Amino acid sequence: MENEVLNTIKNRKSVRNYLDKHISREDLETLIKAGMAAPSAVDLRPWAFIAVMDKSNLISLADVMPFGKMLPNAGAAVVVCGIPEKSVPGAPEYWIQDCSAASENILLAAESMGLGTVWLGVHPIPERVEGVRNILNIPENVVPLNIISIGYPKGLEKPRDKFNPENIHWDKW
C-alpha cells in the first residue's frame, strides 16, 4: 500500500546540483525540528545541530570534505553533532545511532519539502572531524557526525531502487 510517507522514503535521493536559491531560516528550523523528532536511546537526545547559511562557511567546509564539493553551491547545510557525555551511561557510542536517526529524519523532511540533500560523513575520520570542528568552532566534547548539504535541486535526479530481497532473512539467518 502506497502513501505519502512511503512515497517520500522511496523518492529520497542524493542531490549534488542546486539552483542558486536561498534556503530560509524557517525551512532550516523545520528540518531541524524533524531531526529532533527522531527516537533516541532512553530519550536522552545527545545531539546538537548547526544550521550553516553563510557562504564562506560552506566554502570552508567544502575544503575539508573530500566529497563535499557541492557545498559552495548549496543553499545551506545542517551539521548533525553528537554529545557522547549525554548518551546512555555505559554506552557512550549510542549517540551515533541517535544522531543517524535524526539525520535520516532531516533527509526525509527535505525530500517532502522539495529540497535536495546529500549526507556527507564526517565522524570517524579524524581530519574531517577536526576540520569541521575548527571551521564551526565546535567544542571538543561535541563530535560532528555529518554535514547535510541542502538546496533546491537543479536537475531531475532519480531515486535508485535499492530493494534486494536477497538481503532479507526470515526468522533466522
From TrEMBL:
Pfam families, per database record: Nitroreductase
Coiled coil spans: none
GO molecular function: oxidoreductase activity
Entry's transmembrane regions: none
Entry-linked InterPro entries: Nitroreductase, Nitroreductase-like, Nitroreductase/BluB
CDD domains membership: nitroreductase (cd02150)
Limits of the Nitroreductase domain: 9-57, 84-152
SUPFAM superfamilies linked to this entry: FMN-dependent nitroreductase-like
Official protein name in the record: Nitroreductase
Organism, as annotated: Methanobacterium paludis (strain DSM 25820 / JCM 18151 / SWAN1)
Organism phylogeny: Archaea, Methanobacteriati, Methanobacteriota, Methanomada group, Methanobacteria
